[in-house]
Amino acid sequence: MKKIKLITCLVLLLAAVHLQAQDNALEKNSHYTGASATKKQYKAIYQLDQNDPHIIEKTFRNINNALSDPRLTGKLQVELVAFSGGTNAYLKNSNYGEDLKKLVEKGVIVAQCNNTLQERNISRDSLYNFIAIVPSGNGELIIREQEGWTIIKP
To answer: How many Å apart are CA 24 and CA 31, to the nearest integer?
Structure first.
């Protein structure tokens, strides 16, 4: 009988210790405020390769959220490169001209893949006039990644 009581006490003690450890972890987690931006500069390139309004809008929202993160203020360089279906967001008849213009005004490089223009027979004049042209979207991603840029595909 004493052994059963002793085992029961040990189990209850271990359970109490475990619950306290869980409470400590939850408390510690609730006070976490995110990583510290200790570098002088951060660089991110966003890939836009779909003509899905939800993806396009999410991409713009993600970029704006990063640009407004107080940890990254004055430290973040951003590029948005479109190719394939993402090209449609850059066409003059799209609904995204004002959003794109605002990104450029915030310092975002907004670039278009020339290969996609050629493959889809789209003239440069069909795009908003402030869009930059790069030889290839994939090439831009490869080069930027090797330069230390973070690639983000929303």
So the answer is: 11
User: Measuring CA to CA, which residue among 127, 54, 76 is closest to residue 97?
Assistant: 127
How far from the centroid of its chain's Cα atoms is residue 27's Cα? 28
Q: Model pTM?
A: 0.83
- What does DSSP assign to residue 43? E
> What is the second-level CATH architecture of the domain 42-152?
3-Layer(aba) Sandwich (3.40)
pLDDT tens digits along 70-96: 999 999 999 999 999 999 999 999 999
Rounded alpha-carbon distances, angstroms, from residue 74 to 66, 78, 107, 139: 11, 11, 11, 27
More confident residue, 142 or 25: 142
Cα–Cα distances in angstroms (integers) from residue 22 to residues 9, 14, 16, 122, in the given order: 20, 12, 10, 58
For residue 137, what are its two tokens? 């979207």
Domain residue ranges in the chain:
1-28, 42-152
